[in-house]
Amino acid sequence: MAGIGFRIQKILRGDSYIDSIKAYFYSAAVCSGPWILSIITLFCLSYFAPDNIDAYEIILFRTIIIYIYAFSLILIGFLHLVLTRYLADKLFQKEEEALVPAFNSTALVVLCLQLLIGAVFFSFTEMSSIMKFFCTLTYMTISMIWIVMIFLTALRDYQAVSIAFLAGTLFTLASSFLLGKYFELEGYVAGFFLGQMVTLILLSARIFIEFSSKRMFDRLIFRFLWKHKALLFAGFFYNLAIWIDKIVFWVSDKAVEIQPLLRAYPIYDTAVFFAFLTIIPTLSLFIIHVETDFYNKYRDYYSRILNRGTYSEIKRAKNEMVKSIQRGIKLLVTTQGIISLAVITFAPEIAGILHMQWIQIPTFRVLILGAYLHSLLLVAIIGIMYFDFTRLACLITFLFLVTNGVFTWITTFMDFHFVGYGYLFSCFVTLVIAYYTLSNYVNKLEYLTFGLQPVGFHREEEIT
User: Fold this and answer.
1) Looking at CB atoms within 10 Å, which of 44, 153, 355, 368 has the fewest?
2) What gap in Å lies between CA 320 and CA 308, rounded to an integer?
3) pLDDT tens for residues 221-270?
4) Residue 208 to residue 187: CA distance in whole angstroms
C-alpha cells in the first residue's frame, strides 16, 4: 500500500482544505472501502427500508449480509497475506504481466469453492429458492471483492478505485430500494447483489486495464501458496480472530435464532460494527504518513545491506528506521486516542443518531476502546510482516484468535455489562506481546539479517 500512499500524499501538498479531504477520502476508500461502505449500506438499508418490508425481514436481511461478509472474509483469509506476498515479489521482479494470470487463477478457484460452500450453507435455511440463489451469488461476489482488494495494492489509479466503491454503494442503495419496493425481501437481496456486482466489475476492469498479459492462468501460484504455509495460516488466524467474538456470541444462549443456522446478537453486532468505524483515521494516517515515511527508511536500510555498506552506515540506517517507527506509533496513538476519547465522551448523542438502544452505550464505549487497541495491533502485525517474520506473525495472530475467543466465551457467563470486555482484553494482551516481540526482533535486526542466512550450507556444498 506504500505505493498508493506516495501517490495520495502528493494531494496533501496542495494548500486547500479540499485537497486534504480528497487525500483522506482516497486513503480510506483504498484501505477499507468494502468494510466502511458495507456498514454504511447496512445502516441505510436497515433504517430506511420500504414499508412492505417488516422488522423481522430487516433483521433477517442484516443477519444474512453479516454472515456473508464474515465467512467470506474468514475463508479468503487463507489467501490474503500469501497472495499479497506473491504480488509483491512479482512487482519487485518487474513481472507485472504475472498479475492478471494470478488474478484469473485465484478467481477461478475462489468462485468454485465459494459456490459450493454458499449453496450448501443456504440450503439448510428456510428461505425461498430465489432468496437462496441470490444469497449464494452475493456470497461469491463479496468473496471476489476481497480478492480484488488484495490486487488493489498494485493498482496505481486510486481515484478509479474510490469511484468504484462509491458508485457500487450508490447503486446498491438504489437497486435495493427499488427492487425491494416491488419484490419485498427477495428484491432487497437481489438489489444488494447487483450493487456489489457493479463494484466488482469496476474494480476488476481496472486490473485488466492496468496490467496486460498474454497468459490467462498461472498454475505456479498454487505451488507458491503452499510453500508459504505460515502466511496462509497467519492470514486465516487474523481474519477468524476478527470474527470469533461475534461467532461465540452467535452460538451462545444470549443470541436470537432468526432461522436455522442464522443466529444473531444484535446488541453486540451493531455496536461493534459502528465502533470499527472510529478507527478509519488510523488507517488513513497509516497509509498517507506512517507507512510512506517508514518505507523510505526501510528501503534505505536494506539498500545499504545489498550495496555492501559499512557497518556504521547500516547501523545509522537502522536507527533512522527505528525513529520512523517511533514517530509513526506516536502519531497514531495520539491522533486515534483523541478521536476515540471524543467518541466515547459523546457516545449517547452518537448512539441516538445511529438509532442504537440506550443499553448498548456501555458496550459501545468498551468496543471503541477495543477497536483503538485493535488498530495499533494491526499496525504491529504489518510491521512484523514488513520484516518477513512470518512465524512470529503466525503466532501473534493465533494468540489474538485464542484470546478473543476464550475471553469472549468467559463473558457469555457474566452479566450483560461485561459484554465487549473479552474483545478489549484480547486486543490489549495481544498488542502488548506483539509490540514487545517486534521491539525485541528489531533490536537484534542486524543479527537476524546476517546471522540467519544459509551461508554455512552453501560453504558445505562447495567443500563437498
Assistant:
1) 355
2) 18
3) 888 888 888 889 999 999 999 999 999 999 999 899 998 889 999 889 88
4) 31
How many CB atoms lie under 10 A from the CB of residue 148?
A: 22
Query: Per-domain residue ranges for the chain?
Result: 29-227, 274-452
Nine cell digits for residue 460:
558445505
Give CA separation, 190 vs 122, 132, 180, 241, 282, in Å: 15, 10, 8, 30, 34
Amino acid identity of residue 84, one-letter, is T
Residue 427 contacts residue 263 (beta carbons within 8 Å): no
Helix residue spans in 280-345 (DSSP H): 280-285, 291-306, 311-345
Q: How confident is the model at residue 460 (pLDDT cuts 50, 70, 90)?
A: very low
Whole-angstrom distance, CA of residue 448 vs CA of residue 389? 10
Whether the model pTM is above 0.90: no
Residues in Cβ contact with 302 at an 8 Å cutoff, skipping those fewer than 6 apart: none
Q: Pick from 163, 144, 154: which is nearest to 210 by CA?
A: 154
Question: The C-alpha cell of 93 is what?
Answer: 521482479
